[in-house]
Amino acid sequence: MNKKALVCGAGGFIGGHLVSRLKKEGYWVRSTDLKENEYGNNGADEMILGDLRNPELAAAVVTNDLDEIYQLAADMGGAGFVFTGEHDAAIMHNSATINLNVLEEAKNKKIPKIFYSSSACMYPEYNQLDPDNPTCSEDSAYPAAPDSEYGWEKLFSERLFLSYQRNHGIKVRIARFHNIFGPQGTWTGGREKAPAAVCRKVAETLDGGVIEIWGDGRQTRSFLIVDECVEGIRRLMNSNFSGPVNIGSEEMIAINDFAKMVIAISGKKLSIKNIPGPTGVRGRNSDNTLIKEKLSWAPTQPLKSGVEKTYIWITEQLKASK
Q1: Do 157 and 26 sit in the same domain of this protein?
Q2: 216 and 231 share one domain
Q3: Largest CA distance in the chain
Q4: Are both 232 and 276 inside the same structural domain?
Q5: Is the pLDDT of residue 77 over 70?
Q6: Domain total of the chain
Q7: Residue 112 counted as domain residue
Q8: What's the CATH number where 103 sits?
Q9: What local confidence, expressed as pLDDT, does residue 80 receive?
């Protein structure tokens, strides 16, 4: 018998890639989201459009014949969405409601195992003030002090999932994602993350032009190509480790240097103008000590190879949209 999985948030970037991976592995997959995946990652056996904030939808999609649930549905976006403060109430209410509904149904239907996608945004701001030496080991989460309400909701939901594991025996697996990017991700409209935004700006700008980067450009991040994120999810689900565990790259880069990498890939001569804008913490980088210990694996793909694929894909999207 094929295993049966539910992917919540399958209309999104990582969720769509995860559906494709599970299908390749022979799973029967049900997916659910507010929207279909806009880039064709719609390979699920059954797609149910709907809002997981509605308990009735959660009850309909979480059926007692499921072997696994992957809970990636959330109200989210890049810095322009998360760090302005204008969406805080919606982010906290919507994501927490989804998690409460899905978990309660998983408990009621006795689902054996559930994955939850947390975020590196839950790490304390005080450990990420030095762009050259951020601390993001899993045990550095407390005392808690995320720099956004998005991070606080992720931290609350981690505790929610782990409490259901303790009290109701559901096997929980939690990953903290670090800036996942790649083809088929949101690349325009205000919710896109930094890699896609920079690729789009470079692709749109004529040779000799200027691209704008928020902040002083010295803030650092690491970015992980989506294929390795999905590999990490599957390895975690097949392990005996609950987490939370980082799934991210240890190849840290300043945002201005990232922009220079994209410009070099494009072959254009462009200059960078740093402007005021939301930037989040000064430094963030995945610490992969724990994932190596628990899963005997960590991401290895160089940043540049992922950026090349993403830049080409975004360039194609721009041409197609004209």
Answers
A1: yes
A2: no
A3: 61
A4: no
A5: no
A6: 2
A7: yes
A8: 3.40.50.720
A9: 62
Beta strand 28-33 with 46-49: parallel, antiparallel or unpaired? parallel
Nearest to 266 by CA among 199, 317, 318, 208: 199
DSSP letter string, 175-233: EEE--EE-TTS--SSS---HHHHHHHHHHHSPTT-EEEEETTS--EE--EEHHHHHHHH
- Is 256 within the bounds of a domain? yes
For the beta carbon of residue 240, count every other beta carbon within 10 angstroms: 7
Residues 156 and 26 in one domain: yes
Res. 7: pLDDT tops 70: yes
Catalytic residue among 27, 70, 116, 150: 150
Asked whether residue 164 falls in the same domain as residue 194, the answer is no
At 120, list the tokens. 């590196």
Q: How sure is the predictor about 316, in pLDDT bands with cuts at 50, 70 and 90?
A: very high
Q: In the annotation, is 164 catalytic?
A: no
Query: What is the percentage of the chain residues whose pLDDT exceeds 90?
Result: 82
What band does 21 get if pLDDT is binned at 50, 70 and 90?
A: very high
Residues of the domain holding 191: 183-222+251-283+301-321
- Helical spans, DSSP H, in 35-184: 55-61, 79-82, 88-108, 149-168
